[in-house]
């Protein structure tokens, strides 16, 4: 099963405006992507909805003034991945420092 698809009937709006459907996703991913993508200079609109709480789907709408919406989505997903990797790395360093400090306090 595909994780991401385009909303049916959206193809008439051109490559710069698309609604993507994420299966098995919710507000967590939607909010993160909107936070990242809305900061891009060429994005006119980015927003998401969870159409119904009984469905595990999230719709993400992207409208740009230049690049294709799919390219902006791919950029946003890559930037989110980098952010998650950086957060994980900093967390591991902080945990190591915390554990080392607590071991010193015991001695």
Percent helix, as a range, is 40-55%
Mean pLDDT: 90
Largest beta-sheet details: 4 strands, antiparallel
Give me the CATH architecture, please: 2-Layer Sandwich
* Fraction of residues in β-strands: 15-25%
Instruction: Point out poorly predicted stretches.
Output: none
Q: DSSP helix count?
A: 2
Order of adjacent strands in the largest pleated sheet: 1-2-4-3
What is the CA-CA span between the terminal residues? 55 Å
Order of H and E elements: EEHEEH
What count of structural domains? 1
Give the beta-strand count.
Answer: 4
What is the CATH topology classification name? Answer: Gyrase A, domain 2
Q: Class in CATH?
A: Alpha Beta
- The global form is elongated
What's the CATH superfamily, by name? RNA polymerase, RBP11-like subunit
Structural class, by secondary structure, is alpha+beta
**Radius of gyration computed on alpha carbons:** 19 Å
Written overview of the protein:
With 107 residues, the protein is of the alpha+beta class. The protein has a single domain, classed as RNA polymerase, RBP11-like subunit (Gyrase A, domain 2, 2-Layer Sandwich), CATH 3.30.1360.10. Helices cover 46% and strands 23% of the residues. The chain contains two helices and four strands, in the order ββαββα. Strands 1-2-4-3 form a four-stranded antiparallel β-sheet, covered by helices on one side. Strand 3 and strand 4 form a beta hairpin. The radius of gyration is 19 Å and the shape is elongated. The mean pLDDT is 90. It comes from Cuerna arida. One of its GO terms (biological process) is transcription elongation by RNA polymerase I.
């Amino acid at each position: 099963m595909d994780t991401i698809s385009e909303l049916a009937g959206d193809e008439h709006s051109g490559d710069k405006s698309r609604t993507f459907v994420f299966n098995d996703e919710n507000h967590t991913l939607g909010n993160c992507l909107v936070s990242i993508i809305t900061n891009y200079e060429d994005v006119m609109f980015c927003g998401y909805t969870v159409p119904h709480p009984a469905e595990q789907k999230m719709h993400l709408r992207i409208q740009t003034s230049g690049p294709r919406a799919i390219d902006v989505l791919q950029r946003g997903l890559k930037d989110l991945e980098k952010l998650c990797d950086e957060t994980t790395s900093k967390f591991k360093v902080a945990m190591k420092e915390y554990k080392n400090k607590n071991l010193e306090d015991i001695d």
